[in-house]
Design brief:
Layout: E1 14-20, E2 23-28, H1 29-44, E3 50-54, H2 59-70, E4 74-77, H3 84-94, E5 98-101, E6 113-117, E7 121-127, E8 140-145, E9 155-159, H4 160-174, E10 180-182, H5 190-202, E11 206-209, E12 217-218, E13 221-222, H6 225-235, E14 239-242, H7 244-255, E15 266-269, H8 276-284, E16 289-295, E17 300-304, E18 317-318, E19 322-327, E20 330-335, E21 340-341, E22 353-362, E23 365-371, E24 376-377, E25 383-384, H9 387-393, E26 399-405, E27 412-418, H10 424-436, E28 444-449, H11 469-475, H12 477-485, E29 490-491
Parallel strand pairs: 1-11, 3-4, 3-5, 10-11, 14-15, 15-16, 27-28, 28-29
Antiparallel strand pairs: 1-2, 5-7, 6-7, 8-9, 9-21, 12-13, 16-17, 17-18, 19-20, 20-22, 22-23, 24-25, 26-27
Domain AMP-dependent synthetase/ligase: 27-330
Protein name: Long-chain-fatty-acid-CoA ligase
GO molecular function: ligase activity
């Protein structure tokens, strides 16, 4: 079972529409199959159990994804926003002896061969040296790497069956035939991969792909939102998938007079918790937004709110193939889940998987409360353990306290207490050095220097001097409001 075997289209109908330098290229099922066959033949000749690839949002990504499955290779898609250090870590961990890029990577030496797909997309295939072989779980088709809460991404091993099961459940739950879907998230992001490509194609739909820079993205952030709005206006899609930051962008434009296309029928938002007030506002401006919940270990989506059973306060009904239970407010799931983490013990499908998320459940709908572990999820859906940037900030001995925040926000901020003799300029220089060691989604964009250290007496530290993050956030709420509303660096 592969992606192409599940496309619900006749051979000459367009299944993908590509945009390249203002050129619109419809691609039929037959053309997609022909290019996949061409690449499959190349993959069959490669002596490697896995193939890693880091590509833009183009039809070439879909061909590589399909060809790895057809050639019985493990696909290892790598997000474009991973830092070079993270990418090297993934390559070292996954056992892939070949790496595919849509641009020359001189640091990897000379490419072994190249191939051009659809006459426009050249792929450079590099053979990697000194890669240790890896024993994959039986049935592994894809390894999706999380953004890495501590800087080292974690490989989640998925079967074709688990991915297609989620896509099928989404197709049934959303219930829109022949949808026109515009991919706004990077294709290596599992949510867009499964819900934005597989599910629409199962529904007889057509997927529209634009390079990320043409959508206004630079790195992991949206730098030119006008391009994003222009893409939506041009394509006039029926469906979109957003993270909260992108939803906030669309709402801001709508408030300024932008009229969302009447073609829009369903906008799924996920990746981080979304406030009910934001969803209500979006709907007031004709953005049909519905919240979902998921995780990579469940092959992306676990629950999704829909128009038929709308509850704006919830993350929707649990998909039909997933079993759930709640113990001590924590969500546990079972069903067609991941096979295990790469280079770790396999996941036992007969036991409940602890998600680490705090929820309540009523009438088979999930209501998200928070997380058991202390993990920041930004409004772009990136996972960052607060201790990661904090440890780098505290590597300077003159800095005695650093607490990082940014839950559901577009960037991270920090409260910092440094010795009085350590000047603001020195602190700024140190933070610049820290940020150079972090991918852009984990960098500290705004910071506030404390005049006095946090203390247990204030109720801001535990007895063993660990920060009480909720109390600190509340105590300094005016500071954070200025950070995320006004956007300037301020000091006491």
């Amino acid at each position: 079972m592969s992606l192409l075997n599940n496309i619900n289209k006749v051979a000459n109908e367009p299944v993908v529409v590509s945009y390249l330098a203002n050129k619109v290229m419809p691609i039929s099922v037959l053309e997609l199959q022909q290019e996949t066959n061409k690449l499959t033949a190349i993959f069959n000749a490669l002596d490697s159990g896995a193939i890693a690839f880091q590509l833009d949002n183009t039809p070439a990504w879909l061909v590589v994804d399909a060809a790895t499955s057809a050639a019985n290779k493990v696909a290892v898609p790598i997000a474009h926003f991973f830092s070079q250090q993270q990418t090297q870590y993934v390559l070292a961990q996954c056992g892939a002896q070949f790496f595919i890029s849509d641009m020359p990577r001189h640091s990897l030496g000379k490419h072994s061969l190249s191939v051009t797909l659809f006459e426009h997309y050249t792929l450079y295939i590099y053979q990697l040296d000194a890669i240790e072989p890896v024993d994959y779980f039986t049935g592994t088709q894809k390894i999706t790497f999380t953004s890495g809460s501590t800087g080292e991404p974690k490989g989640v091993c998925l079967s074709t069956q688990s991915q297609m099961q989620v896509a099928q459940s989404l197709y049934e739950q959303i219930n829109i035939s022949n949808p026109v879907h515009l991919c706004l998230l990077p294709l290596p992001v599992l949510l867009e991969n499964i819900a934005g490509v597989y599910a629409p194609l199962l529904s007889g739909g057509c997927v529209h792909l634009m390079p990320l820079n043409e959508l206004g993205f630079v790195g992991s952030g949206l730098k030119n939102p006008n391009k994003l709005i222009g893409a939506i206006d041009s394509v006039k899609p029926n469906t979109l998938i957003l993270v909260p930051e992108l939803l906030t962008c669309l709402v801001a434009f709508a408030k300024q007079g932008w009229q969302p296309p009447k073609s829009l029928k369903f906008i799924a938002v996920g990746g981080a918790r979304v406030s009910e007030s934001l969803i209500l506002t979006a709907r007031e401006y004709n953005l049909p937004v519905y919240q979902g919940y998921g995780l990579s270990e469940a092959a992306s989506v676990v629950s999704l709110n829909t128009p038929n059973y709308d509850d704006i306060n919830s993350a929707g009904e649990v998909l039909g193939h997933v079993e759930t239970k709640v113990e001590n407010d924590e969500l546990f799931i079972k069903g067609s889940l991941f096979l295990g983490y790469l280079n770790q013990a396999p996941h036992n499908p007969n036991i409940w998987y602890a998600t680490g998320d705090l929820v309540s459940k009523r009438n088979n709908k999930l209501y998200i409360k928070g997380r058991v572990k202390n993990l920041i999820i930004t409004s772009m859906g990136r996972n960052v353990s607060a201790e990661w940037p904090e440890s780098l900030i505290l590597s300077q001995s003159a800095i005695q306290q650093a607490v990082v925040f940014g839950e559901s926000q577009p960037f991270l901020s920090a409260l910092i207490y440094a010795a009085p003799g350590f000047s603001d300029e020195q602190l700024k220089a140190h933070l610049k050095t820290v940020n150079q060691q972090l991918p852009d989604y984990a960098q500290i964009k705004k910071w506030h220097r404390l005049a006095q250290p946090l203390s247990e007496q204030q109720g801001l530290l535990t007895a063993n001097n660990r920060p009480k993050r909720a109390a600190i956030s509340q105590h300094y709420s005016p500071i954070f409001e200025q950070f995320y509303r006004l956007g300037e660096v301020i000091h006491e």
